[in-house]
Amino acid sequence: MNFEKALNERIDFINEGLKTYLKPQYPEIIYEAMGYSVFAGGKRLRPLLLLGACEACGGDIKETLPFACAIEIIHTYTLIHDDLPAMDNDDYRRGKLTCHKAFSEDIAILAGDGLLNMGFEIMLEAAVKSGDPKFTKAAYTVGSLCGVKGTIGGQVVDLLSETKKADEKTLLYIHKAKTAALIEAALKAGALIGGADEETLAKLETAANKLGLAFQIKDDLLDITGTAEVLGKPIGSDDKNGKSTYISVFGLEKAQKDYLSLSEEANEIFESLGEKGAFLAEYCRRLVDRIN
Amino acid sequence: MNFEKALNERIDFINEGLKTYLKPQYPEIIYEAMGYSVFAGGKRLRPLLLLGACEACGGDIKETLPFACAIEIIHTYTLIHDDLPAMDNDDYRRGKLTCHKAFSEDIAILAGDGLLNMGFEIMLEAAVKSGDPKFTKAAYTVGSLCGVKGTIGGQVVDLLSETKKADEKTLLYIHKAKTAALIEAALKAGALIGGADEETLAKLETAANKLGLAFQIKDDLLDITGTAEVLGKPIGSDDKNGKSTYISVFGLEKAQKDYLSLSEEANEIFESLGEKGAFLAEYCRRLVDRIN
Fold it and tell me: In 3D, which of B130, B73, B80, B61 has the Cα closest to residue B280?
């Protein structure tokens, strides 16, 4: 397997799908705002995990396109709403104006709503067209991980912890719900489309949580040891904002140790999927090391 | 049929379902904010249409509970987001503080997101549990009518028309997308669960659009001829806000004439469904006359 070649081909495949779903129609401004944020430079991390998990379970990655696009579209809505003035109040993301700055606040709220709804529309359209219940099950899996028991709940607790230092349990909840839940959704939806059995689904759930937490700890480590270029945001900003991090809660030594063991444990699970899982294992290895 | 008795029993049935779905769990504040708005005095119009349509098509209304709750939950998210400072900036709705006033703006945005996501979760859970593809089809129908091609698109055009007088085509688009789309979603989802054929679905689509427009014209008429009590908001507010209405665009005479013919045509369709559709027909007749 030529990993780089496969990676680029898959990113093109996902972007073509996204372009089709986001092709402007009346009322154009809302499609422009949604498309602006979807094409603002995302690495397509979650769709790539979804494709890789489907392949690792013996499925045809062509079947995953609606779900791969839906999960990126849902991820993008969370970014637009998180950036709003009433939330994190960010003017820039990845060096580009945030949606409410490039358009307006009302349009950004509606663009977020539109993307969330579109994510479900796309998954449901695929389920209705195919008639195969595995797609309905995959859509339900995504839905239950990005709602108030997942991504949204994580954002709520993250907002609350801005005024009060997070304890260990709270910090782990935020990372699990805000970061790991959508990774778990991507891996499980891909696996369900690929025809995975319950045992493999359970394995991937474990791997998702280890990968999500390792990814987040690496973020916290880079915030004190890295460069703005690798991190994608200014160095030291967590400390400046008084934000609880894995390091501030558990200490630097434990953070470094846990990062290594979690990423190794996640890798072992991906590698146990065999040759079909080679892309997924390699992608995840690079992901926690921030090589991609 | 004792209409009043059936109406009250159905409202209780829907409210019990909503209470179960919105039972607070961690993180409690988001469930409290979502529940606050869902239980702020809605008439359960859309769930009642959904139940009635299922019954009119020969289905068992017990099967509709998840979808009846989901459509009310989705409707409530649109109200919370429409009321936000960046949108209509309303402090009160039905005499109670709006969600962002009773809680805070960030929690209100997330409560809206949480409700929209929960609506889909509930429908998908029902579809996965039953394994019957009719539920997946009903969820897709709801999803495609409340997204950028429906409710959200309607809100976008409504916002844009605040700075520019709406022409006839634009006004009809706003009413169709903002008001009629969710009515259509309720009727069609109920009908699909009730086992309706394509012909009945097409009939209900026509009826939904006539009913939705008649309902909206009545709103505009009450704004100049009614009382605040019947309308549920101050009289004359459309004119004061420079808002385009059916009357300002088409004139009072045509508005009155169209209201009568549209509601009569919608009634005829509901009545054509026969004895099983008696509740639905009576409910819709009262609805356009604002008797409920």
Answer: B61
Q: Answer whether A237's CB lies under 8 Å from A222's CB.
A: no
Supply B149's token pair. 């091609």
Q: Chain A contacts of B26, Cβ < 8 Å?
A: 153
Task: Report whether pLDDT(B7) > 70.
Answer: yes
The predicted pLDDT at position B238 comes to 66
**Displacement of CA A69 from its chain's centroid (Å):** 12
Nearest to B128 among A25, A137, A155 (CB): A137
**How many angstroms away from the CA of B121 is the closest CA of chain A?**
5
Neighbour count for residue B65 (Cβ, 10 Å): 21
Please name the residue that has the structure tokens 């705002």: A33
- How many contiguous H segments (helices) and E segments (strands) does chain A have? 16, 2
B96, β-bridge pairs: B93
| B184's tokens | 């259509």
CA distance A250 to A248: 6
Rounded Cα distance, A32 and A27, in Å: 9
Asked whether this complex has an ipTM greater than 0.90, the answer is yes
Three-class secondary structure of residue B289 per DSSP: coil
Beta bridge partners of B97: B92
pLDDT at B162 over 90: no
CA closest to B109 among chain A residues: A81
CA distances for A33 relative to A41, A109, A290, B109, B148, angstroms: 14, 10, 29, 18, 12
- Percentage of chain A with pLDDT > 70? 93
Answer for the pair B258, B216: CB distance below 8 angstroms, yes or no.
no
Q: Check pLDDT > 60 for residue A292.
A: no
How many angstroms separate the CA atoms of B237 and B225, rounded?
A: 12
Q: Which residues from chain A sit within 8 angstroms of residue B25, using beta carbons?
A: 149
Summarised one tens digit per residue, pLDDT across range B198-232 is 999 999 999 999 999 999 999 889 888 766 666 56
Instruction: Provide, for chain B, the percentages of residues in helix, strand and coil under a 3-state DSSP scheme, each rounded to the nearest 5.
Output: 75, 0, 25
Q: Any idea which residue has 């054509």 for tokens?
A: B272
Q: Cβ B152–A113 below 8 Å, yes or no? A: yes
Task: Render pLDDT for B246-268 as a digit per residue (tens, 0 to 9).
Answer: 999 999 999 999 999 999 999 99
- Count H helices, E strands: chain B? 16, 2
Nearest CA-CA distance, residue A155 and chain B, Å: 8
